[in-house]
Amino acid sequence: MGPSPVEGSAVIPGLTVASPPVPSAPPFRAPSGTHDVLPPESARWQAVVGRFATLAGRAGYGLVVNPVFEEIGVFQRVGEGTDVVRKEMYAFEDRGGRALALRPEGTASVVRAYVQHRPTPPWKVWYAAPSFRYERPQAGRYRQHHQLGVEVLGSDDADVDVEVIVLADELYRSLGLDQVTLALNSIGDAVCRPGYLRLLDAYLAERGDQLCGEHRQRRVEQPLRVLDCKRPECRDATEAAPRMLDHLCEPCTAHFNRVRRGLDALGTTYGLDSRLVRGFDYYTRTTFEFAATALEGAQNAVGGGGRYDGLVEELGGPPTPGIGFGIGIERVLLACDAEGVLAPPEATVDVWVVDATGGDAARDLTWSLRRAGVAADRAFDERSMRAQMKLADRSGARLALLVGPDEASAGTVSLRRLRDDDGTQELVARHHVVARVKELLA
Ligand code: HAM
């Protein structure tokens, strides 16, 4: 038996024609907090990812591609105290009853992959991946955003911290961003942090009623987060709070000093920020964040990361130190807009083929060019010569190849330089045109 006809469709034996859509139904839109990236904006996007791939590849990092969803436990190990895990996760059950979640960040998936595959350390990987957080959407804050990141697993050498931080910094600089600042901190390790937390806890207990509503409640379970809180009540109350940097143990101090010396040696400027604890429970020792000062304060973090020397164990692997960062592509592009850098490319292709003889020449010439590595395009639908020339101009191409009846019968192509004021044109033999185009574009 064939499929039953769709409700509301007209049925003619052997033919099913769908009715037009109900007129009152509004057209679909991308879900709140998500967006489509279309050309020409997508070319800037591609440029940022490409630049990052080059920088990371040059530093010996290999691309890692993880699934977009994982067993929910992978992310819960990141820390139940983390807002991203507590309140913002896209958690769901699949048809097989498995508890899964869309990736809210990249680190947990990379660490899960490390534990699963046990590559030889140090394992240096980069990624460009979507992340999903159920946040209140606003400019620069999305429910699906995209991160460029690196993770290095298997070395606690402070020079790795330096490498990772400088790599992120190089991306901003290479895009032409001048107004990105780096804040640096160390939040100690399992040896020195417990003692510091006792001091901080005692300090906060005396000022509990001066804190913001959220931290009055969460101060005991999340004392470090109080330091990071941007609300004025918490800012004022923690003005004179003990600083982790003053209470680091000897190995953490030595580690942090080497990180600082490395950044100084490589000319990467930073400011110390003893409040910088970042939003995930997994961090140890070095934490850092990049802020685009050209953007509005609340959403100006264009990247951040740090060390997580206990996370591999947390996810069932052997004791293995790790460090990495995530950079928000959308925010980097907003920062580029604010600083007026990274304009979209002016041209989609280098050559436009105009064919007034029916389309065979356009079909054959564009593919000869493309197969020779030249970016080329053409019009379809047998448009008029005038309309084709308009499209050629709009494409931003440097050269137009024109084939009219005369050229077709003589086996030639007219080659016009579009961006020259004089619109110089020359006649080229058809078999020589690809070589001549390459010569002119070189
Ligand atoms: P994160 O600070 O949560 O860290 O995110 C990294 C970057 O992603 C932020 O600095 C920001 O640029 C961007 N971002 C985060 N949330 C949003 C959002 N809702 N809309 C737009 N952009 C956003 C992490 O995710 C850690 N996994 C980074 C890391 C890697 N730490 C160690 N390794």
Characterization of this structure:
With 442 residues, this protein is an alpha+beta fold. The protein folds into 2 domains: 41-192 and 248-339, BirA Bifunctional Protein, domain 2; 351-441, Anticodon-binding domain (Rossmann fold, 3-Layer(aba) Sandwich), CATH 3.40.50. The protein is 35% helix and 21% strand. It contains 16 helices and 18 strands. Strands 3-7-8-13-12-11-9-10 form an 8-stranded mixed β-sheet, sandwiched between helices. A 5-stranded mixed β-sheet has the order 15-14-16-17-18, with helices on both faces. A 3-stranded antiparallel β-sheet has the order 4-6-5. A hairpin with a 2-residue loop joins strand 1 and strand 2. Helix 1 (41-58) packs antiparallel against helix 5 and helix 1 (41-58) crosses helix 12 (329-339). The longest helix is centred in the first third of the chain and has 18 residues, at 41-58. It is elongated. The relative contact order is 0.11. Mean pLDDT is 93; it is low at 1-10. The site of histidyl-adenosine monophosphate has 26 residues, from strand 8, strand 12, strand 13 and helix 12. Histidyl-adenosine monophosphate (HAM) is lined by residues 105-107, 133, 135, 140-142, 145, 147, 149, 151, 279, 301-306, 324-328, 330-331.
